[in-house]
């Protein structure tokens, strides 16, 4: 069986897929994750969904080259979860898109999630939106990963149907803060989490200094908000340095 080489980010996602699961990868691009799950005999069946023609063709080509692809894989063109029939997948992966787009895909296809046992989501930005969606829709966050690849920091969020509020209970930080920080990432306090928030602080510091040169009347108010945000991040970073497990 041929080898499929995938990024560390996709490997981390694959590690969260239970053995034998039927996995749908939505927005699969070249279907590398789906191929890896088959070749490594992690998934028993994969569905690769793609909205756009170019990546859809690339996914078909990739999957067709695998042995016994016809029995074990299906490549489908369509928007989000619309490519799925209810009950067809045990696990849904959506990776490499913004949190807002991921949430809109989940929202638009919520009826297709009936019977799905696990969501593995990797938002490029807007992780908070995804955690909030879990909380509001009965999905319990059960694991989080943070990793760095090619200088980019990624977060992977895993949820199962269950007690959505549970990960936010009995913690020192408020629910609102934990939706931003990630309850598991906060408990683990890996150095990479500090690096992520350091970068966030640098981003806001740049915005602040460009606003300082602005003479728009609304600039002062915006600067105050950003100043508050930077203070919160400073406190988060100080805490991460102090409470290393
Ligand atoms: N999931 C792969 C990964 O993480 O490496 C590919 C990520 S790629 C940046 C995002 C892919 O999602 C693109 O191929 C794009 O065409 C597809 N896409 C965007 N919106 C989509 C939607 N609503 N439904 C299905 N696919 C979508």
Main beta-sheet annotation? 7 strands, mixed
CATH level-four homologous superfamily name of the largest domain: Vaccinia Virus protein VP39
User: Count the strands?
Assistant: 7
- Rounded mean pLDDT is 95
Uncertain spans: none
Which distinct ligands sit in these coordinates?
S-adenosylmethionine
Radius of gyration: 20 Å
Structure explained in plain terms:
The structure is a single chain. The protein is α/β, with parallel strands linked by helices and 245 residues long. It has helices spanning 8-15, 32-39, 53-64, 69-72, 99-108, 127-136, 175-181, 183-188, 191-212, 219-242; strands at residues 21-26, 43-50, 73-77, 91-97, 118-123, 139-149, 152-161. The chain folds into 2 domains: 8-166, Rossmann fold (3-Layer(aba) Sandwich); 191-242. Helix 1 crosses helix 2, helix 5 packs parallel to helix 6 (127-136) and helix 9 (191-212) packs antiparallel against helix 10 (219-242). The structure holds S-adenosylmethionine (SAM). Residues 26-29, 49-52, 55, 79-80, 95-97, 105 line the site of S-adenosylmethionine.
Tell me the layout of helices and strands.
Elements: H1 8-15, E1 21-26, H2 32-39, E2 43-50, H3 53-64, H4 69-72, E3 73-77, E4 91-97, H5 99-108, E5 118-123, H6 127-136, E6 139-149, E7 152-161, H7 175-181, H8 183-188, H9 191-212, H10 219-242
Parallel strand pairs: 1-2, 1-4, 2-3, 4-5
Antiparallel strand pairs: 5-7, 6-7
Helix pairs in contact: 1-2, 5-6, 9-10
The structure holds S-adenosylmethionine.
The site of S-adenosylmethionine has 15 residues, from strand 2 and strand 4.
């Amino acid at each position: 069986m041929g080898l499929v080489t995938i990024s560390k980010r996709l490997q981390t996602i694959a590690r969260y897929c239970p053995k034998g699961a039927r996995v749908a990868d939505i927005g699969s691009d070249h279907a590398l994750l789906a191929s890896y799950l088959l070749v490594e005999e992690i998934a028993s069946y994969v569905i690769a969904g793609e909205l756009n023609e170019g990546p859809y063709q690339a996914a078909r080509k990739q999957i067709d080259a695998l042995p016994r692809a016809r029995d074990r894989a299906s490549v489908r063109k369509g928007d989000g979860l619309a490519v799925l029939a209810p009950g067809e997948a045990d696990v849904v992966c959506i990776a490499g898109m913004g949190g807002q787009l991921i949430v809109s895909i989940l929202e638009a296809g919520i009826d297709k999630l009936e019977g799905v046992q696990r969501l593995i989501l990797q938002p490029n930005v807007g992780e908070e939106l995804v955690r909030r969606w879990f909380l509001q829709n009965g999905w319990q966050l059960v694991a989080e990963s943070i990793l760095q690849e090619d200088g980019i920091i990624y977060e992977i969020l895993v949820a199962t149907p269950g007690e959505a509020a549970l990960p936010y209970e009995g913690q020192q930080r408020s629910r609102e803060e934990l939706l931003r920080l990630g309850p598991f990432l906060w408990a683990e306090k890996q150095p990479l989490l500090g690096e992520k928030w350091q970068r966030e602080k640098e981003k806001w510091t740049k915005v602040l200094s460009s606003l300082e040169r602005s003479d728009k009347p609304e600039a002062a108010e915006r600067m105050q908000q950003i100043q508050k945000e930077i203070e919160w991040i400073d406190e988060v970073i100080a805490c991460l340095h102090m409470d290393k497990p």
